[in-house]
Specification:
The protein is mainly beta. 6% of the residues lie in helices and 55% in strands. It has one helix at 58-64, and strands at residues 4-9, 13-19, 22-27, 30-35, 41-47, 52-53, 71-76, 80-86, 89-94, 97-102, 108-114. It is elongated and about 60 Å long. It starts with a strand and ends in a 6-residue tail after the last strand.
């Protein structure tokens, strides 16, 4: 049985650190060694090379405040839509919901539109 867990996070990755299923924070580039004999700790490594950050626990991660400097968060209400521009190119149209886009690697611009008054 292993008492330690080791993780390596590369320059273009981020580690999502969970303790007993609860979000505990982000891990930046580097090597990490955790003493965890009961396997209560997990680290999910995600790539920042893909602009949009998608995760089943995105709401909890956003609520923690950990993404403030690392990502742009967009929370669209029922009467809002958004256009997402990545590196000056139209990428997608967002429906209502919670979204996050990594900052830094690519230029991401989100334009929020009022769906009650569509422009043609």
């Amino acid at each position: 049985m292993f008492l330690f867990q080791q993780f390596k996070i590369r320059s273009y990755e981020v580690g999502l650190h969970f303790r007993e299923g609860e979000f505990a924070g982000l891990l930046g580039e580097g090597s990490y060694l955790f003493f965890d004999p009961f396997r209560r700790r997990t680290v999910e490594i995600v790539s920042r090379r893909v602009s949009q950050f998608v995760h089943e626990k995105l709401d909890l991660i956003v609520e923690s405040g950990e993404l403030k400097s690392d990502a742009s968060v967009v929370d669209l209400k029922d009467d809002q839509r958004a256009l997402v521009w990545i590196d000056g190119r139209l990428s997608t149209l967002l429906a209502p919901g919670l979204y996050a886009y990594w900052a830094g690697r690519r230029q991401v611009r989100v334009e929020i539109l009022d769906a009650r008054r569509p422009r043609f």
